[in-house]
């Protein structure tokens, strides 16, 4: 039985003061929801403040990115050990990192291996662009992204791993995929790729989230799918009522 998980990716939104305010409003209603793992991923600058507020709440904290090296001359970067001081989770290979910061599967792979070494739970994002979707390349793209991004990950670490299937065309567009289609990608492509890497049994233990325009209104459609174990939520994760309703839907 895979435990459901909802993660909120705030992207480059919210100052430290705004982060405090938003977490302050969310924390009580989120704490009332049981049976779903909840994670909040604010910007780096806000992690310290968020960590203080979330301490003892049972709500997890995640970074949105990190470098793969432990330390060194990488101006502007943040190392796995720095993330680990405050966070249990890290989002890796988000499509915005891939599109705007040239992160390839090889780069994402190095980061995933560093997350494994640091003992962080990696939330690894995969998903096809609109052009690839329209050219019916979804299965090929998602398959190779999954296997290349997770190359060399140990079967011991794998059950901790989280994969987020996020069709790029659905992110921030208000045009979510639908439950059946997203479930098929997980079932036909992501789990088989995981099985090739880690064996059938371990592949069944890896949680796979859907992401891309998830809202309180459509969340249940995804959570009702047998292969989808939760959601990676962008825009709606910064609206208290929306995020709380999404977490509730995942708990049911
Ligand atoms: P969205 O973003 O929910 O705003 O579409 C999802 C994501 O980028 O993870």
Please explain how this structure is put together.
This protein is an alpha/beta fold and 252 residues long. The protein has helices spanning 16-31, 47-54, 80-86, 95-100, 105-118, 130-134, 138-149, 179-198, 200-205, 219-223, 240-251; strands at residues 4-9, 36-41, 60-63, 89-92, 121-126, 162-165, 207-211, 230-233. Helix 1 packs parallel to helix 11. The protein has one domain: Aldolase class I (TIM Barrel, Alpha-Beta Barrel), CATH 3.20.20.70. The chain is globular, with a radius of gyration of 17 Å. An eight-stranded parallel β-barrel has the order 1-2-3-4-5-6-7-8, surrounded by six helices. Helix 10 links the parallel strand 7 (207-211) and strand 8 (230-233). 2-phosphoglycolic acid binds at residues 9, 166, 171-172, 211-214, 232-236.
Under CATH, the homologous superfamily reads: Aldolase class I
By CATH reckoning, the class would read: Alpha Beta
- Note poorly predicted spans: none
CATH architecture descriptor name: Alpha-Beta Barrel
Bound molecules: 2-phosphoglycolic acid
Strand content: 15-25%
Q: If helices are DSSP runs of H or I spanning 4 or more residues, what is the number of helices?
A: 11
- SSE run: EHEHEHEHHEHHEHHEHEH
Q: How many DSSP-defined strands?
A: 8
What's the Cα radius of gyration? 17 Å
Largest β-sheet summary: 8 strands, parallel, barrel
Helix content: 40-55%
Structural class: alpha/beta
CATH fold topology? TIM Barrel
